């Protein structure tokens, strides 16, 4: 069952028009690899019911590897993006995950053909009543080359930056850039199988330190939110770790 997790994130210098700004986050679809069309459609419906100001999609739209990509992942990329095009929010921004990076051009094309804006070492501004916040996105940190220098805009001190990535442990690098206020990531599936009294058993590389939920990273005070994702990897089930739709509400610090 899809769990909606609501968190308030307090951002320094958040412009008044963005007080109460709501971001819905979905991640790790792994479409058609233990994650069927009906469940992604259900997640889209739930997001639409929440009517957020922005939707962040933080990667692994497909499952891809060298022996799997051409036969399955390519059509899955277009099918997943077509369903996600049903998100009614006008601001729909994406980053790629490590599986997407295997067929980067295909997933990028699928997203953009369906009106989902991909930020790959890029940024975009959101404006309200003459005030701005910035959304940046990096290339996948596992199989690609994330470039924060290209992803960071030239901005005024009172214009916060929210960074979309995939691998949460990259937050230690991002936090060294004092411009980033909040990073959104996925990748870990929250551990997927959570046995009582034991740490998460199924954690991928670059997802071992920050497993789920909200964290403060480094001396800069950068915040990181790690979404548990929708899909599964390696095992066709979750235990004590339900799939997640996140709703983040921005408020001033």
Short structural description:
The protein contains six helices and twelve strands. The chain has 253 residues and is an alpha/beta fold.
Spatially, the strands of the biggest sheet line up as 1-12-2-3-4-5
Low-confidence stretches: none
Give the beta-strand count.
Answer: 12
Report the end-to-end length measured between terminal Cα atoms: 33 Å
Derived structural class? alpha/beta
**Whole-number tally of structural domains:** 1
Biggest sheet layout: 6 strands, mixed
- What's the total helix number? 6
CATH architecture identity = 4-Layer Sandwich
Mean pLDDT over all positions = 93
Overall description:
The chain is of the alpha/beta class and 253 residues long. It has a single domain (3-252), classed as Purple Acid Phosphatase, chain A, domain 2. Helices cover 21% and strands 27% of the residues. It has helices at residues 37-50, 69-84, 98-102, 104-113, 148-151, 171-174; strands at residues 3-11, 22-26, 54-58, 92-95, 117-118, 122-128, 131-137, 161-164, 180-185, 213-217, 222-226, 244-252. Helix 1 packs parallel to helix 2. The longest helix has 16 residues, at 69-84.
Write the layout of secondary structure elements.
Blueprint (H helix, E strand, L loop, with lengths): L2 E9 L10 E5 L10 H14 L3 E5 L10 H16 L7 E4 L2 H5 L1 H10 L3 E2 L3 E7 L2 E7 L10 H4 L9 E4 L6 H4 L5 E6 L27 E5 L4 E5 L17 E9 L1
Parallel strand pairs: 1-12, 2-3, 3-4, 4-5, 7-8, 8-9, 9-11
Antiparallel strand pairs: 2-12, 6-7, 10-11
Helix pairs in contact: 1-2, 2-4
């Amino acid at each position: 069952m899809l769990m909606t997790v609501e968190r308030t994130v307090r951002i320094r210098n958040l412009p008044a028009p963005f007080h109460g700004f709501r971001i819905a986050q979905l991640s790790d679809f792994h479409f058609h690899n233990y994650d069927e069309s009906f469940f992604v459609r259900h997640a889209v419906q739930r997001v639409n019911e929440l009517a957020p100001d922005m939707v962040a999609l933080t990667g692994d739209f497909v499952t891809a590897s060298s022996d799997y990509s051409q036969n399955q992942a390519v059509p899955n990329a277009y099918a997943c993006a077509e369903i996600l095009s049903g998100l009614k929010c006008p601001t729909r921004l994406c980053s790629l995950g490590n599986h997407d990076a295997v067929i980067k051009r295909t997933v990028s094309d699928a997203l953009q053909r369906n009106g989902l804006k991909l930020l790959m070492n890029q940024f975009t501004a959101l404006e309200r009543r003459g005030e701005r916040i910035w959304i940046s996105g990096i290339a996948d940190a596992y199989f690609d080359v994330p470039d924060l220098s290209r992803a960071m805009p030239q901005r005024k001190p009172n214009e916060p930056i929210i960074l979309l990535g995939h691998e949460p442990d990259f937050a230690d690098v991002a936090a060294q850039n004092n411009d980033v206020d909040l990073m959104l990531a996925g990748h870990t599936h929250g551990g997927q199988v959570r046995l009582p009294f034991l740490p998460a058993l199924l954690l991928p590389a670059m997802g071992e330190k920050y497993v789920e939920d909200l964290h403060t990273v480094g001396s800069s005070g950068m915040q990181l939110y790690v979404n548990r994702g929708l899909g599964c990897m390696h095992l066709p089930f979750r235990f004590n770790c339900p799939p997640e739709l996140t709703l983040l509400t921005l408020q001033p610090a």
